[in-house]
Amino acid sequence: MSHLSDIEKEKRQKLKAIESLGIYPFGEKYEPSGNIAEFRENFKEGKKASLAGRLMARRTHGKSNFLDLRDSSGKIQLYGSKDTLGDKKFEFLSALDIGDIIGASGELMKTRTGELTLKLSDITLLSKSLRPLPEKWHGLKNVETRYRQRYVDLIVNEETKKIFRTRSLVIGAIRAALDRKGFLEVETPMMQPIPGGAAGKPFKTHHDTLHRDLYLRIAPELYLKKLLVGGFEKVYEINRSFRNEGISTRHNPEFTMLEVYEAYSDCAGMMKLVEELVRFSAKEALGKEKFEYQGKTVDLTKWEKVSFAELMKENFGIKPDEKESTWVKKIKERDS
Question: Which domains does the chain have, with CATH numbers?
Answer without folding.
Answer: 6-127 (2.40.50.140), 143-289 (3.30.930.10)
